[in-house]
Automatic annotation (TrEMBL):
Domain Aminotransferase class I/classII large, first and last residues per copy: 34-384
Recorded superkingdom: Bacteria
EC number(s) given by UniProt: 2.6.1.-
This protein's record includes keyword Transferase: yes
Protein name stated in the entry: Aminotransferase
Lineage: Bacteria, Bacillati, Bacillota, Clostridia, Eubacteriales
Keyword terms of this UniProt record: Aminotransferase, Transferase
One MF term in the entry's GO annotations: pyridoxal phosphate binding
Pfam family, one: Aminotran_1_2
Gene3D superfamilies: Type I PLP-dependent aspartate aminotransferase-like (Major domain)
Cofactor(s), by name: pyridoxal 5'-phosphate
Family: Belongs to the class-I pyridoxal-phosphate-dependent aminotransferase family.
Top EC group: transferase
Listed PROSITE patterns: AA_TRANSFER_CLASS_1
């Protein structure tokens, strides 16, 4: 006998993975250059040169110690460097002991959720949302409540949100810039969200934590403001990752920030650390703790994403697709050309376009394009998008 829940998670059909496998098979048949795989959110620009240079230098200079265990929350000097960077950028006064280094944003979320969740607790998600949130919340026996999308701008349907918050609401997860829509929450959206949460905290007499999942924080396009959420809502816990900003998804490094201003901050931090311990994380990868700390003021060359975004958005709109303007990340989330987004994604395959249906993100009737690919591939794919649109005429 094995755990039925884990068996189900380990064997469940993943639409993205199936698309990816299909793409590999198809590439063997028609050639890789004729398959247009927009399914995966793997950064396409290399890490800044300083990242590799720093890793090589540290391997040479600290050969005897660099591979050792660090303290469980991460090397104190590395944490302080990351805190200093946040302080410079956001005018804060964080210290090393408010940061807990993790194995990427996925682990940050699991640690925070594991640390917070008590029997009966609920979490609110806004569609479209990153599908793994459900797995992480249900993994710690929390309950998920989804607010349907606000499809004109992918901001927040506040009346649905206000009704969804109850005395059982432990937290709310936001992700801006967003996967899959690319939309950045405006300051106004965040202020309204904060005002509602403050009123609900007062009504129910307990904190409601805003978990801000920010792996795309630095991938924001020209002129788009990504507000620093802890300055808008006191009970914000930040889950961050260097996977996208430094193009390091395989190195697995991120952090949880529990600012001192958070209600019961010391307990929340300690409980997140306890969850990390119970999940067997021990410590985040030691070499990349130091590399990320030295390079945390840098960003991979995001101009490529901005160019790809403009190219695709303009061209798709001209072909008749409805696209909400993204402000960052590297995803577009247009409406599918038929209500059944699964059927639409199937039809796109006939044109060798691999597009992820929106249902998995809680937003049926849409599809996701991950445009973290070579610009040249997008240029060659445009006639396929046109042919796909024409097939619906
Ligand atoms: N959150 C969102 C919204 C993501 O898109 C991803 C990865 O794609 C993650 C979390 C997990 O990131 P990481 O690689 O840092 O675990």
């Amino acid at each position: 006998m094995v755990s039925q829940r884990m068996l189900q998670l380990g064997t469940a059909r993943s639409v993205i993975r199936e698309l990816f496998e299909y793409g590999r098979q198809r590439a063997a048949e028609v050639g890789a250059e004729n398959v247009f795989d927009f399914s995966l959110g793997n950064p396409s620009v290399p890490a800044p040169a300083e990242v590799n240079d720093t890793a090589i230098r540290l391997l040479r200079e600290q050969a005897d110690t660099i591979h050792c265990y660090t303290s469980a929350p991460g090397d104190p000097a590395a944490r302080q460097r990351i805190a200093d960077s946040l302080n410079r950028r956001f005018g804060e006064q964080y210290t090393a002991d408010e940061l807990y280094l993790t194995v990427g944003a996925a682990a940050s979320l699991c640690c925070v959720l594991g640390g917070l969740t008590c029997p009966g607790d609920e979490y609110i998600l806004f569609a479209p949302y990153f599908p793994e949130y459900r797995v992480f919340i249900e993994g710690v026996k929390g309950k998920v409540k989804v607010i349907p999308p606000e499809p004109e701008h992918f901001q927040i349907d506040f009346s649905a949100f206000e009704q969804a918050v109850t005395c059982r609401t432990k937290g709310v997860i936001i992700n801006s810039p967003n996967n899959p829509s690319g939309v950045v929450y405006s300051r106004q959206t965040l202020e309204t969200l904060a005002a509602i949460l403050r009123a609900k905290e007062a009504l129910y007499g307990h904190p409601i934590y805003l978990i801000s999942d920010e792996p795309y924080r630095e991938i924001a396009f020209h002129g788009v403001e990504v507000p620093w959420v802890p300055q808008i809502y006191k009970d914000t816990i930040v889950c961050y990752s260097f996977s996208k900003s430094l193009s390091l998804p395989g190195e697995r490094l991120g952090y949880v920030l529990v600012p001192k201003q958070v209600t019961d901050a010391d307990s929340v931090y300690a409980a997140a650390a306890g969850a990390g311990r119970s999940q067997g994380y021990v410590n985040a990868p030691s070499l990349f703790q130091r590399v990320a700390a030295e390079c945390c003021d840098l960003t991979a060359d995001i101009s490529v994403y901005e160019r790809n975004c403009a190219l695709l958005t303009d061209a798709l709109r001209e072909m008749g697709y409805h696209v909400v303007q993204p402000g960052g990340a590297f995803y577009l989330f247009p409406r599918s050309l038929e209500p059944d987004d699964m059927a639409f994604s199937e039809r796109a395959k006939q044109f060798d376009l691999l597009l992820v249906p929106g249902s998995g993100f809680g937003a049926p009737g849409h599809f996701r394009i991950a445009y973290c690919v070579q610009t040249e591939m997008i240029e060659r794919a445009l006639p396929r998008f046109k042919a796909l649109a024409d097939s619906y005429q």
